[in-house]
Q: What sequence folds into this?
C-alpha cells in the first residue's frame, strides 16, 4: 500500500515514527510537510518565515487555501491509497481536493485538546478521525456523529531500544535519580520546581520555550534534546522517569508514557483512569494524583530498587507485545477502510 502522511518532518517525531513503521512493514510511505524542501524554512531565516506564514494563514483565508491547494496537488501526484493527516491546521480545501481523486483520507491527532487551532479538523470531511483521549472520542461521536476511533500512541521498537545490560548496571552508569524530557512549559516546570524544593535530584532534557521559561529549574536543565540510543539509555538507566502530563490530557496520556515503558524505564505519571486499560499492573503503583503524592512515591521507590525492577519487567514485556508503532499502523489501516 502507498501512504502519504501530511505533517511535520522531524527526528523521532510522531510522523517520522509512523513512516518508519510503514516502510519497515513493506509499504511505500512519504511525509508531506508544508515547510519542507526549501531553505526559506530553515535556520534563523526559517523562524521568521514560518512566523509570517502562520500569521498569514491565521488571518487570510485566501493565502491559507492556496497553501493547502498546492499541498493537495503534491499529494495527488504521489497517488497514495491512504492519506494520513497529522497537522491540526489543515484547511478543509485540502481534504476536498484529495477526496475528489477518490483518495481515502483520515485524521490522527497525537496531541491534547488545546491544539485544535480554529477547529479545522471538525470542519473537514475526513473519512475517519483517530484520537487518543476517551473524552475527545465521546464528544466527537455523540455531538457531531463523526466516524471517530480511539487509538493508543506507541513507541518505535527499532529506535526506542532497551540497552542489553541489566537495569541495575545501567542505573550505575547513568547515575540519575529522576529524569524527565520534553518542552519546559510553565505547568511542567512548576511541578519540577516542587521536586527540587524537596531535595529530589532531577535532570531535565528537552526544549526551552522562547517565553515564560522558569529559570529556577536551571540547576536541573541538561541543555540537551535527546533522541535515539542516547534517549533509550537515559530512560532505562534513570532510576525514575517523571512524566507529568499536560493538564489538557483530560483522560488520555502522552507519547512519553509509551516511549518510556517501551524502553524499559521505571515511570511515574499522572493518574488517569485509562491506565487500568493500558498497564498490566495496578496503576496506583506507578501514578500520582498530585505533586505531594509524586514526591512520596519518588522517595519510596528510590529506596526500594527491587520493586522498581519487578514492575519494569512486567510493564516492558506488556508494551513490547501491544504498543509498538507496528501495532499502531495495523490498527489505523484496519479502521481507515471501514
A:
Amino acid at each position: 500500500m502507498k501512504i502519504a502522511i501530511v505533517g511535520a518532518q522531524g527526528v523521532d517525531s510522531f510522523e517520522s515514527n509512523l513512516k518508519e513503521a510503514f516502510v519497515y512493514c513493506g509499504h511505500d510511505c512519504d511525509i508531506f510537510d508544508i515547510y519542507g524542501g526549501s531553505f526559506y524554512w530553515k535556520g534563523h531565516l526559517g523562524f521568521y518565515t514560518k512566523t509570517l506564514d502562520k500569521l498569514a494563514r491565521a488571518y487570510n483565508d485566501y493565502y491559507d487555501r492556496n497553501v493547502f491547494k498546492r499541498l493537495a496537488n503534491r499529494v495527488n501526484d504521489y497517488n497514495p491509497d491512504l492519506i494520513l493527516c497529522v497537522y491540526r491546521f489543515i484547511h478543509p480545501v485540502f481534504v476536498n481536493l484529495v477526496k475528489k481523486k477518490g483518495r481515502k483520507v483520515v485524521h490522527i491527532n497525537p496531541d491534547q485538546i488545546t491544539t485544535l487551532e480554529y477547529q479545522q479538523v471538525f470542519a473537514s470531511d475526513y473519512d475517519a478521525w483517530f484520537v487518543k483521549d476517551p473524552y475527545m472520542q465521546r464528544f466527537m461521536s455523540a455531538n457531531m456523529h463523526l466516524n471517530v476511533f480511539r487509538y493508543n500512541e506507541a513507541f518505535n521498537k527499532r529506535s526506542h531500544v532497551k540497552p542489553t545490560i541489566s537495569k541495575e548496571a545501567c542505573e550505575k552508569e547513568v547515575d540519575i535519580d529522576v529524569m524527565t524530557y520534553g518542552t519546559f512549559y510553565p505547568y511542567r516546570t512548576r511541578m519540577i520546581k516542587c521536586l527540587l524544593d524537596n531535595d529530589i535530584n532531577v535532570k531535565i532534557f528537552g526544549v526551552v520555550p522562547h517565553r515564560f521559561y522558569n529559570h529556577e529549574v536551571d540547576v536541573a536543565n541538561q541543555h540537551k534534546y535527546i533522541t535515539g540510543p542516547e534517549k533509550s539509555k537515559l530512560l532505562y538507566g534513570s532510576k525514575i522517569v517523571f512524566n507529568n502530563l499536560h493538564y489538557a490530557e483530560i483522560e488520555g496520556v502522552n507519547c512519553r508514557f509509551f516511549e518510556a515503558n517501551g524502553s524499559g524505564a521505571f515511570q511515574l505519571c499522572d493518574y488517569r483512569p485509562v491506565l487500568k486499560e493500558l498497564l498490566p499492573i495496578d496503576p496506583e503503583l506507578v501514578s500520582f494524583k498530585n505533586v505531594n503524592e509524586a514526591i512520596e512515591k519518588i522517595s519510596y521507590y528510590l529506596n526500594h530498587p527491587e520493586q522498581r525492577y519487578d514492575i519494569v519487567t512486567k510493564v516492558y514485556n506488556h508494551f513490547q507485545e501491544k504498543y509498538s508503532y507496528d501495532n499502531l499502523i495495523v490498527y489505523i489501516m484496519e479502521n481507515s477502510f471501514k
Q: What stands out?
A: The mean pLDDT is 95. Residues 2-154+325-336 form a domain with the Rossmann fold fold (CATH 3.40.50.2000).
